[in-house]
Amino acid sequence: MLFWIFVFLLTRQSGLTQGHPNLLSRAATEASCDCTINSCRTLFDIVWGCLATIFACTWVALHQNVPDPNLGWFSLLMRKLRMMLVTIIAPEFVVGFAARQFASARNISKKFKVSKTHGFFCNMGGFVSEEGHPVSSLKQLPAYMPAIQKIKKVDIEDKSKGDTLSKGVAIAQGLWFVTQCLARLFQHLPLTELEVATLAFAVLSVVIRLLWFHKPLDVQQPIIVARSEVEINPLQEEDITLPNDSITLLDRIFSGISGDHDYYHPISSTSVPSFYSIEIGTKKTRTLINVAGVLGVGSIFGSIHCAAWNALFPSMAEMWIWRISSVFIAAYPALTMLFAAINVWAPYNNITVAVLWSFMVAGFVVYPLCRLFLIIVSFTTLRALPLSVFVDVNWSNYIPHL
């Protein structure tokens, strides 16, 4: 409720409406600063602050699964760049991935009496057998859990490139950007479209970091664990292999979104997929997590962009590109998850399946274009900004003084 109130206020205060051709020049005279270091900010300050925040939200915040130990440095770099690109284009799906891993880690922690860090490490392929295969399925865990329980939490955290302090500082960085935007809102100072887009990333980044707070960061090498002498839950032969030619790129994309990795089998692999998490509960339960996570977060991400509905744009074309793209970004994840939920809970029907696939395939083309349009417009609008944009927040208003 508080979030939607904030969006409403931001919409009211975000700028002037685009109904008059002289709005830009008129707005430029409404507020200004005396160009001193205490009251002004430059265009470089705005762009640099936004780019640094976006980088922290898309590169630094990523907690990837353990990669294949045979990958070289260039392959590892490209792997993270691809993940960064996915986060920029569809950050809400990364939040859904983080939510699935959090739920799975919590389930493992309760079921096997280990820490959430142990649970995350299982999900990210951090434990491998003596043969080099990830211990990353519920059928494997009972046989390897005695060895996993002997590994201390601090030993796992020692492999992480980030500790509690650094993660806390990273969360504080995202909250600080949100605080700056709120301060400008309450002092009736406009935000640039780039700042609104960055605000959306900052909000989602805080959510991602909180979900992955107990997940080790940038682990490159797994921990080898031995199988117990007594096999609690023997693995079945049909779970070991799967013809590689049956796995398509479309299968990997949809499995990353839905969380159902039916094609993946740990015993025939040396690492887990990029968006992998150990399955918990039934397929309906996993779908519910996706619906709640992706739908809610996707709507928030798009709604923040919609909050700049009445902002000042240099041209009508840029205004309508921003508005249409924002609405689509806000609506598409919700409609996709709604159709997916209907497909799971409703009886199997060829019509619903055809509608779902048609909608998702069309969205895979339109959605990235809308994200690209929002990014482009965020920068093109910087060419003509009102002087009030360069007025800095007067923080002394919030400091008690005589």
UniProtKB/TrEMBL annotation:
Q: Which spans are transmembrane here?
A: 43-62, 83-103, 288-313, 319-342, 354-379
Q: Where is the signal peptide?
A: 1-19
Keywords per UniProt: Membrane, Signal, Transmembrane, Transmembrane helix
UniProt name for this protein: Uncharacterized protein
